[in-house]
Amino acid sequence: FIYGFLSLFYVGLGVNTYNINRKSRANKIFLAISSTLALWSMLLALMSMSDNPETASFFRWIMTVCWSSLYLEILLFALETSGIWKKINHKFLIRIPLYIPAIFNFFFYFSQPIPSDYLIRLPGAWAYQFPLDRGLFYNHYFTAYYLIYMLLSIGLLFYTSNKATHTRQKKQATIILWSLIVVGVISSFPDIILPNLGYTQIPPVTVVISFLSFLAIWFTIRRYSFLSFSDEKLFLELSMIMNEGFIILSENNLIQNINLGARKILGINPETPINQIKLDRYFDENFLNSGESLSGIKAHVNNFKGDRIPVLISIAEIRDTFK
Fold it and tell me: What is the tens place of the pLDDT at every residue in 47-60?
């Protein structure tokens, strides 16, 4: 039940965060992390419901894609939120090596799955006994990959937290930093260290512990607009409080958004719905259908009260680039 709930939780949070700002690379990576944890949780739920070790072993084999990609995604997230990704985005020889350890980890362990004989049935779940007869490389490659990528991610966010000059950025980096420490340190002990020491009585808990970290990230989204703050949003918020009139129109000249300055000029009450108001009814001249960008053009506005007000008009047309 817990794993099934977590799967739905990660899907919902990831999609909700992505929809806040679909253009943001950080939001896209966050969606990828959420999807990985959702798939991992779902496979653990199916594994826990399995009646025999062979079926449980099959679901654990599929999980290889999850624990191979998760720590790469976390590092990419740290690179993006720290601002370093922008510096290496066009440096092909730096970016590609970041993916190689995760890709190798997947193919290496996917081609050599743990046999069903190593699975141990616990009440409501399955645990596994780590095979110690496959050599040093097999036993410790994933541990090394995991530790290096988590330490790099934590180091990047620690650097960002100390370097940040804005309160918003500093608090965001600090919350995410401690969230990763919770996932990286606490979850590694029962899921990685104990199995290597031969203790096998604890089921996988990474996705459960990650739940706490994602709650912290959700808090930063709501409290500090983390992953939802963009230059476009800032510009729109500033435009909405300007005394100068600012109006966003649809292609049919219907008002989509309007600030207080424009409402005062046009005589539109703050309570009046705007979605069915056509702006061209207020002008003597047919500026809006000219298809041209205009700047500082003298015109007159006929407002709701019947007053004829002289104004300066600037018009810019923005076309949807979706193809």
Answer: 888 888 899 889 98
